[in-house]
Amino acid sequence: MDEALRDAQGQPLPLLEWQAVKNGLQEMNIKGNDTFLTSLCTFSEVFEDSKRIGNSAQAHPVKEVVYSRSDYDGCKWWSTWFDCQKERPSQALCQEIDQFQTTLFQMPEMKTLDTMRQLCRFAQPTSSDSEFNLYSETEHFFIWLRLITRFRDYNLYVHYYLK
After folding, report:
1. In this predicted structure, what is the pLDDT of residue 30?
2. CA–CA distance, 36 with 41 (Å, rounded to integer)
3. How far apart are CA 34 and CA 13, in angstroms?
4. Are the CB atoms for 143 and 158 separated by under 8 Å?
5. Helix (H, G, I), strand (E, B), or coil: what is residue 101?
6. C-beta of residue 134 within 8 angstroms of C-beta of residue 39
7. DSSP 152
8. Sequence-ordered strand ranges (E) for the chain
9. Is 36:15 a contact under the CB 8 Å cutoff?
């Protein structure tokens, strides 16, 4: 079924069926759960309790473990990671984060900023015409993707919240 039709019917395409995964570009080891990208946030309670981290002026949800900030320079994606807890996540949690992030960037929809813009047609709009939201979850995390389509800006934030 076409992704647009699935989304309109509230049946998002499992991440395992995205072209990059289907063609063997990334092996995923998900224990019985499908990982989806969806335009509907099912974990709004995560945002109820917040705290300040380091010198950041912005409050972060208490359950936020890490987030990445990525930009596309016209050739490739560059990412920077930020810890949101005093202690680093366990090795198993880091592997789960790495697996999601690697799979995400291997999707054809994330090949360039232009292909990401096309993906944004299916994402949740915001008050800005150049910013969109997608959501996902894995075994241990709720995940919020903030997609920004402006060139020469940070284009993607991926936030990982412990379930």
Report:
1. 39
2. 12
3. 9
4. yes
5. helix
6. yes
7. T
8. 50-52, 59-61, 64-72, 77-83, 124-125, 131-137, 141-148, 156-162
9. yes
**What pLDDT shows up at residue 13?**
59
Domain carrying residue 8: 3-162
Name the residue with tokens 């940070």: 154
Rounded CA separation 115/109 (Å) = 5
Average pLDDT score, the chain: 85
The DSSP bridge pattern shows strands 64-72 and 156-162 to be antiparallel
Tell me the three state secondary structure of residue 64: strand
The residue with tokens 């995390």 is 141
pLDDT in tens, 51-103: 887 777 788 899 999 999 999 999 999 999 999 998 999 999 999 999 999 99
Domain count, the chain: 1
